[in-house]
Amino acid sequence: MKIAIIGAGKWGQALYHAYSSNPKNSVVITSRTPKDIENFVSLDKALRQEYLVIAIPAQQIRGWLERNFVDYNQNILVAAKGIETTTGAFLNEIYSQFVPNERLCFISGPSFAKEVQESLPTALMISSDNESLAQKYADALPTFIKGYVDRDVVGAEVAGAYKNVIAIAGGVCDGLGLGNNARAALISRGLVEMSRFGKYFGAKNKTFLSLGGAGDLFLTASSTLSRNYRVGLGLAQGKSLEEILEELGEVAEGVGTTRAVEMIAKKHKLYTPIAHEVYLMLDQNKSPLKSVKDLLK
Question: Which of 193, 187, 188, 185 is nearest to 262 (CA)?
């Protein structure tokens, strides 16, 4: 497969490493800022490849597509996880304005970029309305990554985005020293919450028990390798959101997704207690201890 990775952040570089590790692939990479990476090419050359992997953060993707995307009949694997803050749109809704659904796939599953870069064993899920295209992207993965294929795009999207919100709560929980029991309760109730949210939009329950649901949630909500978890740790330490994000120096998708979930939940009258408390901590400066007490009620 002739593949172009668009976006050279940590996740984009990890996917470049992964697809380049399969000798059957020809892989190039590009980003807004030129980087000293082998096979780094111009955006125009990247866009002309038959298979794209787009690793641009969720909140930036609509603007990037409007300004930069040229349709050469490419297939696209979406590697971001989030919900647009300003509109509440899922990524499949944004991409489908530019590319037909049968040319779109979405990647999910427990996968820290650092461990993918180190070629450690990983399992990922690729979801698409076009199962044969999803299988092509899965088959092109290297031997250290097991790829599964699924058709529940909405479920994969909601799970991949919502778990970042629960990961912020997980960081708060551990930052406050509440213990293993509390974290386990939080994560399990978070799984219920995000599956209930997804079901409203037509997602399948089984997706939330898959790699892209429970698998990604368990990983992201309990490790300092997770940027969103580190946001929660910072909140527990009494730091402002601005201070936390400056120290992080990277995009934490859960921040924007929390705001999107809050907006969607209000609009559709959905019960999202954990996401709501995360929203209050992020945007209303609510005390993390007070949020914990209110959740326990």
Answer: 193
- Integer-rounded Cα Rg, in Å, for the chain is 18
107 and 189 housed in the same domain: no
- Angle of helix 180-200 relative to helix 273-283, nearest 10 degrees, comes to 110
157 found inside a domain: no
Residue 24 known to be catalytic? no
On the question of pLDDT at 145 being above 90, the answer is: yes
SS3 106: strand
d(CA 254, CA 83): 9
- Tell me which DSSP letter residue 9 carries: S
Nearest Cα neighbor of 71 from 35, 107, 47 is 47
What is the C-alpha separation between 191 and 219, in angstroms, rounded? 13
Say which of 24, 114, 146, 163 is annotated catalytic. Answer: 163
Residue whose structure tokens are 């599953």: 109
State the average pLDDT for the chain.
97
**Calpha distance 246→293 (Å, rounded):** 29
Domain that holds residue 105: 2-151
Same domain for 191 and 147, yes or no, is no
Count CA within 13 A, CB hemisphere, residue 244.
Answer: 23
To the question of pTM greater than 0.90 for the whole model, the response is: yes
Question: Of 102, 121, 151, which one is at a domain's C-terminal end?
Answer: 151
